[in-house]
Structures
1.
Amino acid sequence: MSSLLQELPQLLPWLVILPLFWALFSLALGVLYRHWIAGVFIFLLLATNLILIGQWLLLGDLYYSLGDWDVPLGIQLRLDGVALAMVTVTSLVTAACSLHASTYLDDYPRAQQYFWPLLAFTWASLNVIWLSADLFNLYVGLELLGLSAVGLVALTGQTEALGAALRYLYAALLGSLAYLLGVALIYSGYGQLDLPALSGLLESDASTRLALALMTLGLLLKTAIFPLHIWLPPAHGKALPPVSALLSALVVKASFYILVRLWLEAGLQVVVPSAAQFMGALGAGAVFWGGWMAWRQTELKMLVAYSTVAQLGYLMLIFPLMVGVSPTAAQLAWEGGWLQLIAHALAKAAMFLAAGNLVLAMRRPDIIGLHGVGRFLPFSLLGFGLAGVSIMGLPPSGGFMAKWLLLQSALASGQWWWLLVLAGGSALSAVYIFKVYQQCYIEDTEVDNFRHPSLLLDLSSITLALLALSLGIFSAWPQALLATALSGGGV
Amino acid sequence: MILDWLLAGALIGTAAGVLLTRDLYRSVVLFIIFGLLMALVWVRVEAPDLALAEAAIGAGLTGVLFLDALGHLNPDKAAAVRQKYRQPLLSGLAFLLALGVTGLLWMALVDSPQPGVHLPEIVDQQLLASGVEHPITAVLLSFRAYDTLLEVAVILVAVVVGLALRFSQEDQPAETQVLSPLLQKMLVWLLPLMLMVAIYLLWIGSYRSGGAFQAAAVLAAMAVLMRMSGTPIPGHSNLYLLRIGLVVGLGLFLLLGSVDLVSGGNFLAWPEGWEKASILVVEGALTFSLGMLLFSLFEASPAPKQASMTRGGGA
Amino acid sequence: MNTFFIYALTGGLLSSLGLLGFILHRHLLRRLMAFNLMGSGCFLILTGLSQSHQGVDAVPQALVLTGIVVAVSATALALVLIRRWYHLTGQTSLPEDVQSLEKTSSKEAQG
């Protein structure tokens, strides 16, 4: 078995080639065989992913020079522990969203034709970003991701979705230009674009610092970190549920992923603790503002969307908890931060899919319509309920493990003020999630007026929610995976 | 040097004009002039490829897109934008921000360090191995072919969204016959000439400035002219053919890029000994497909007939 | 100061001018033009600044070529959305605050 894995050619580029072929096939064939094509390509991608896990366990980090051109001339792909974790989460979440969409889109015959190619392009661009180590290539990946995501939001062509898509597009365009401006300064100053090669080279002169600041600003805008989050709630709240799930779970994480690579891998000698504290403060603002706004929403999907704003805030704690602290504290923050990203991806995708099912069932978007759901639609509520456990950070979920690690890290580095953010954020999320639960168990009618969603819709949400829960129980494995990236990387 | 300062001043002045002119139509015209000035700037920066691309894509295609969009946003019917600009407070902040960015950028530009790696030398050394003689083509289709592959995907995404929104509500594109009879007659010899220019640009790309993108822009311009003059475009109404045409460029790029990979080599490494042939085939397919894609960017925009303006739409 | 550097400085000015227009204007077409100006400034910095250090360089020129094509795709996509938005609402700008999006759409449903 192990010799077989070693002899297999490196499979890294297939993570990008396969979804691109999928997009082309579904584009050329239109609605014909769309489910078959999706099934085949998802199967191939999951298989590739599995083999890559095996190869990585056996061989360690994988590197791949595209076109056989070495850096700095060519572009390099790399698969370390963090990238592998991201690729795997992407496969799981996108597969579940596809399953959901295959049934859900029956109500949207027109959107169907173009949903699948855009989904495939989104998957391709996500994998491009997880694997790429080249700053300009990451820019192209970000643009591909942004345009596909905007297309997915606008897909229904309805007014609300269009307004949201436009707002999203303009934010994304501004963000990528700021990023590109930074790339321009870096290339002019260092003559190369490869991130691992640049780490250790960067110096803190005015040019490099402005480059990092511009790239950070662009990426924060694309990740929708408070106070640059205005575009996110409508875009995520008004899109079709499988699209919302994909956007909240993965798309915003892509720019955050680049941000972490930039700060903690390439720029570690340049970034200063006060800047890292500022990033943490933005995160704290996101946690409280997002939680407060989520509680104030009357529409179920908008509540879930503001919850994303809040949850993204926790991710930002990785910066103050890692810059200028002891290696132990940094290690804990590193694992906790990535675990939070993964747990949120799984739980939020589950929650958006479940919210979509509930809205479908009650035929209205607002939370008041949930009365009686607990009695008549327990199965649809299950996905939402389980996902809520992880979002609130209750044991034994992945969300709990992540916050527990972040909390330990904050204690280890003596930064008690982040404990307040962790505790206050959890309390706020409990408040807005219990607001939903409460409505579900109000029984003011004896009649079941709900449209019952098909089993497949509920199953795709419950599966993801269960994954988010079990992430906490089996957290040792992902933690080990993430830890290697830290020891192997430049930190 | 004085010429450069003048050109730079003209560029900034035109850009300011684009942003400040009250009349939107004049603003778009200034924007096109800006694109042409940019093409001149690229000549001065010793980037003839960029000059060609900027003139064809930056000024030409983008300008046509803006003019076309402007024609569909009827200014009389638009609910008057009461505020043209943001509120005073926000505007003041924006000014401060822009001023700050200018200052920081100025400092950064002056302070930019000398790079330790000299990529132009490495490009020169490896040029022979790439199979083409023009360094920019070598970067685009050999050293950094991955970027180019993804860039083609980006155009495709834009077209897909255009198609999705166009057909989602059964709008037919408005009949846009705006050319004068004289120009219509000129098309008889203009179109073949443009086709030849496109083929020439494509062929010359492996030696000198030119290549798939510039050639494609010329093809797209041809199609736009034909569309505007009502000249039938072969296979135009056949949606199935259109689809195949759109995907063939990226498809062939992917397929040829994977040949070496499947036979145990590397993704996007062109088969040994066939580097130049592969690049030419990919460029040919790209030209055709990109031409179609760029034209579709123009064509696929939803253009409702005036009568449908009162219809509530899909919401 | 060589020719390349003059244009890098021009690019810097152009970027901040574009940024100003992008934030200041409300009309979606004008903001889109401002975005394109900003993009051009960015491309000028990339090519001009790196060439001012080490002479004519094919790599940034190729990167800018990619950038130009990406920019026109983004512009085309934005125009598609703007037209559809105008068709549905009669507006050429986005509402100032996000919550009023819902008001716009409910008004439009009545009319």
Note: The radius of gyration of chain B is 23 Å.
2.
Amino acid sequence: MVDTQKIIGLGLRTGVIITAALVILGVGLILANHSPPYTLKELINVSSNINTGTIPLHNLLSGVIHLNGVYIILLGLIILIATPIFYVVVGILRFSKEEKDPLYIVLTIIVLFNLFFAIFALGYLIR
Amino acid sequence: MIEVVYFTLILMASIISGFLGSLVGLGGASFLVPIYTLYLGVPIKYAAGASLISTIATSSGSASAYVRDKITNIRIGIGLETATTGGAIIGTLAAAWVYSHHLAKLIYIIFGIVLLSQVYFQYQKREYEEPVGSKPDLTTRIFKLYGEYYDQRLKKNVKYIGVKWWLAEIIMFLAGLISGLLGIGSGALKVLGLDWAMNLPMKVSTTTSNFMIGVTAATSSSIYWVLGYIQPLLAGLTAVGILLGAFMGSKVLPGLKSKTIRYIFILILIFLGIEMILKGFGISL
């Protein structure tokens, strides 16, 4: 039997370490002025409107490939947000395969629904 | 030059917040948002966004060890997340409404009040106690609210049961609401739901609460993301700083015998809470 608690613990830790590494790399790239079209001066302005709402996310992949500091940090943040989702999914597997517990399968699916609803729908609906 | 100042101030503020947060037993956000908004001039929505992201980092970082040691009750945690994630959605929508109507001062006032009440609830009953065995109720059976863990201090397996799932569910909804509205983990309220309402052992309550914070904050922060409350550099630096600070705090904590030091930090927290309320009313000290 697979120990889901071990998997969850390991997954959480891995997610955090990857995020920290990507953020540090991204900060380095930004300092090296490798974050077009955003300049260091704009990025350190706490009142600027360079934020997750204005940075086009569809550039994420090419930004990461071209080692753009801003997108590397964003990738780190996305992985961080995804870490808890990972353990909810593992939770479903555990309640369905190991414990065969229909009530908790339903509860976990509700949690996952709320999460996905928030991620993929809600922000866009109210923006 | 200005970039050196920025990096120094942001990193120092977030490391200190993470450090003090772990020493007083509240998350880093309790210190972070006031320091950012009151002293560093960060707009409160960006402070809340950065704080929420860091909350996921500290929750996942410290949860991993407790989950592995099987102190965290994953079943109870995930079950109650139905309420925290629902509350987080409503709270985030409320925050969006408040910001779009230029009522950010409301967030300052509510933040201050929540900060002060968290301090109160956290320290109301501080002495270590084994939960008195409560009688199982209907929800204990339906939701299988039981478990056991190995207690390092007592050197034995502790078996426990939980009661009043419905009451915990209501408190968790509130916790999620406040988390989404203010961008904090609201761990103190989650502990209240697990420890006071469900009567779980303190150790199980704190670790399970910590485990739950990640999913709650992931829900809110994905909405914050689309609404543009997250500045990548600020949020990234803050998350790393708070992680570092919290890690340092966890190393210092076991050796920290003196209660006085903790009380001083709590006084700082109370001061920050009052300042937030005053700032909301347009008064600055």
Note: Helices of chain A lie at 4-31, 40-43, 60-65, 69-98, 102-126.
